[in-house]
Amino acid sequence: RPVPGARRPVVKFSHKQSGLQGDVCVNNRLALFNTRFLRFCADVDPRVRPLGYAVRAWARARGLAGNPSGGGPLLTNYALTLLVVFFLQTRSPPVLPSVLQLRELAGPEDRAEVGGWDCSFPRDPSVLEPSGNTQTTGSLLAEFFSFFGGLELGRLLLSPLEGRALPRPPPGPPGGLRPGPLTLQDPFELSHNVAANVPPRTVRRFSRCCRDAAKFCRGPEFQHRSRRGRPWGVLGLLQPEGTPEKDVEGFVIPIPLRPQGGSGGFREVCEAVGFVLGDVLGCRCHPGGDMGTPQDGEELALDPWDTEEPPLGS
Questions:
Q1: Tell me, what's the pLDDT at 226?
Q2: Which of 147, 174, 222, 275 has the most crowded CB, counting CB atoms within 10 A?
Q3: CA–CA separation, 195 vs 75, rounded Å?
Q4: Under a CB-based contact definition with an 8 Å cutoff, are residues 26 and 73 in contact?
Q5: Cβ density class 210-233: b for 16+ within 10 Å, e for less
Q6: pLDDT confidence of residue 294
Q7: CA–CA gap between residue 69 and residue 64 (Å, rounded)
Q8: CA–CA separation, 285 vs 279, rounded Å?
């Protein structure tokens, strides 16, 4: 579906089996450096990727991200990930350096300029000293909610360039930075407010949901398993808003299946479960025996009704 009126004209598409959505854009070189920068941040510290995934999943469960449903534009995955990067820059000691600090570490081969904007930063994360911050990912997640729940976002400019919050500037000239209820500056294109289209209502809900999540994280059900059958730990944060506790018997992850026979559905279930165990929960998965008991070195048993090779990593 073409969206010619977007800030960068795109063609949006959806992958039917998984429901994942994506965009196709031509000649947007700044987006390439944004992507490389986020990848660099994820490679600098192992806590960045799971923290970013948890925040995005939480925002979708709270109705702050995803498809709008009457509340106006929502936070994009890029904006949410950039909020995580900014938060990690503000820790003491910081988990991630500011973009200005990264520029100083960039070598001659790392220098880049796109459209007049300085996009220089190291390509090799090993040039950075390991962070002195030893907090766990769970501790950082709880601190993320407390941090943003306590900020007066309407008065601030969140700057990943400097790694700190600045007073929100007045509206600039045409083509300049457009401040809003949430002013989140792009790390390279400094005239771009990544959250410029997010309305006040969504920003207020974001702040309220952060305060609610921070309160949950201070309770016993975040640190200790619930004895009442309720979601606990991170799963308690991912429970969709408005779900009555008395109706919750567990944490449900929907797995879309195609309405067809054969082993296609079984294959999709295996891939979905493997994704949740490996990518989401960080488990190490090994091929199992006939009754599902892990046995090192044993070959993966194939579905007897499946004549195709199993997908890689099944």
A1: 60
A2: 222
A3: 7
A4: no
A5: beebbebbeeebbeeeeeeebbbb
A6: 46
A7: 10
A8: 11
End-to-end CA distance of the chain: 32
pLDDT, tens only, 92-111: 999 999 999 999 999 999 99
Q: Which stretches in the chain have pLDDT values below 50?
A: 244-250, 291-311, 313-314
What pLDDT is attached to residue 242? 57
Residue labelled with tokens 């025996």: 289
* Triad 22, 28, 32: Cα angle to 5°: 75
pLDDT value, residue 297 = 47
**What backbone phi and psi angles, to 5 degrees, belong to 22?**
-150, 170
CB 131 within 8 A of CB 140: no
Cα–Cα distance for residue pair 222/34, rounded to 1 Å:
33
Which DSSP string corresponds to 129-168?
PPPS----HHHHHHHHHHHHHTS-GGGEEEETTTTEEEEP
Q: Are 122 and 78 in contact (CB under 8 A)?
A: no
DSSP lists the bridge partners of residue 166 as 157
Give me the sign of the Cα torsion angle 45, 48, 50, 51.
Answer: positive
Alpha helices in 45-76 (DSSP H): 48-61
Backbone angles phi, psi at 303, to 5 degrees: -65, 125
Crossing angle of helices 137-149/200-218, nearest 10°? 130
- pTM confidence score: 0.72
C-alpha dihedral, 103 to 107 to 109 to 114, nearest 10°: 10
